[in-house]
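A student in our group prepared the protein record below, which I am reviewing. I have pasted the whole thing underneath without changing anything:
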Amino acid sequence: MMKKWNVLYYETANGECYVEKFIEKLTKREQAKILAIINELQNKGINLPRPFADLLRDGIHELRIKLSGEQTRTLYFFCYKDFIVLTHSFVKNTSAVPDKEIERAIRIRNDFLVRYNDKTLKDLL
């Protein structure tokens, strides 16, 4: 039996959650689809294959989701052996994920790792 990963939605220091805000704006059907794929990520982690997930660069991965004809992406990273942190989501309008989105995910990861360590995350569960 494969382990289940702990999926966290990144929150800023003042409590803003980019992924949650993105999901809240979707229709109920789109919400169900994105949450089902996040659940697959929780179950399969690093083993979630294309076309659902892919490694971009510098340890930043993407969830690849088509919603109502639009390509959406939720970026994430793995940390502390058991955790996946979803950084933010956006509609992709170019052939490749824009560098600015990857850089944003890296900045989010850096902030997250400064504020949390393995022990503090386990205490949150």
Residues 9 and 15 are 11 Å apart (CA to CA).
